[in-house]
Amino acid sequence: xxxxxxxxxxxxxxxxxxxxxxxxxxxxxxxxxxxxxxxxxxxxxxxxxxxxxxxxxxxxxxxxxxxxxxxxxxxxxxxxxxxxxxxxxxxxxxxxxxxxxxxxxxxxxxxxxxxxxxxxxxxxxxxxxxxxxxxxxxxxxxxxxxxxxxxxxxxxxxxxxxxxxxxxxxxxxxxxxxxxxxxxxxxxxxxxxxxxxxxxxxxxxxxxxxxxxxxxxxxxxxxxxxxxxxxxxxxxxxxxxxxxxxxxxxxxxxxxxxxxxxxxxxxxxxxxxxxxxxxxxxxxxxxxxxxxxxxxxxxxxxxxxxxxxxxxxxxxxxxxxxxxxxxxxxxxxxxxxxxxxxxxxxxxxxxxxxxxxxxxxxxxxxxxxxxxxxxxxxxxxxxxxxxxxxxxxxxxxxxxxxxxxxxxxxxxxxxxxxxxxxxxxxx
Length: 427
Hints:
Layout: H1 2-27, E1 31-33, H2 38-44, E2 47-53, H3 58-75, E3 82-87, H4 92-97, E4 105-110, E5 113-116, H5 123-134, E6 139-141, H6 144-154, E7 160-164, H7 168-177, E8 183-187, H8 192-197, E9 205-210, E10 215-219, H9 225-234, E11 240-242, H10 245-251, E12 257-263, H11 269-284, E13 288-294, H12 295-303, E14 314-318, E15 323-327, H13 338-350, E16 354-358, H14 364-368, H15 374-395, H16 404-417
Parallel strand pairs: 1-3, 2-3, 6-8, 7-8, 11-13, 12-13
Antiparallel strand pairs: 2-4, 4-5, 7-9, 9-10, 12-14, 14-15, 15-16
Region (Disordered): 402-427
Membrane topology: Single-pass membrane protein
GO molecular function: protein disulfide isomerase activity
């Protein structure tokens, strides 16, 4: 009897070890999911990053090797992230169930709850970005070196909030609420050198940092949650925001009006000088968002506000809708004494000395939704096919139908020639 029980325990332990080994092996590679194993995989792991792809999609093909590189690295995290993929073209019903309308669609399922992913797609950056989802809500830092390492490890894709001399409980609720948008930490021990580095002279204080913009702001209180939350929300973006597809996504959720400055070229020295002046104005007017865009960087967007044929730089006020305001007497910004001109523009706006204009392009939401989804592509392909058919019939010529390979080649060529923007669904 004892021998039988021992044998039973041995067999069970072997089975359990084999199962655990299989599971460990699986999360080190990209899992292939379909209708038979999707729900069970999402339920089995706390964090699953899913790539809904189509075999013919050029951008999906580029992404695949990056995911192969990232998978074993993410599997080694303290809280592992499993990478999986679904052939959404083959398993269309499963894709529709998960609101997939373009390829690739990327989602991270946290304890079964999906969040769409708009971050970078290169393996190294993707790993850094996804680490945010499994990091502690608030990181406690107890030395200068810990602060330095935290900022370096956080990377540049999220703003960073550090509470110096602040009790962790004062920020924990907001850290949980905005975990997907920023890094949060409290520093319990630090030197005077750190205070000089981050330009604050008393504690407690909260410092917001935007590493990619070399930008930071300071909050000395009051530390009631509503005031602290307002500071955090206002600092998801830098003081002067470069307008692009990524920042428009963040602006979509910001209720403030946008003071938009249109430049010839953001990288020019005179433009950089003006941007510094805009930061000073933004610091004194936190109820507004100050943004800028260069015609060289994004002509289509800039020309929406009548930039073509207008003297630049030009400032307008926009609420993200289909109209914008220009301030009478402040149509453009001269090169000298720009600070006074910006103050005059803001005074004119607040006094209502404005003229309402209609934009010539889409609204903010229109820009975000301007990418063509799969259903739209199908409709366009169908209409084009019908036009070709009608044309051939009217000419009474033999009908020639292109192969799938030819269609794929044409689609791929167009995709290759278009500039990739993070977060876009290209195909």
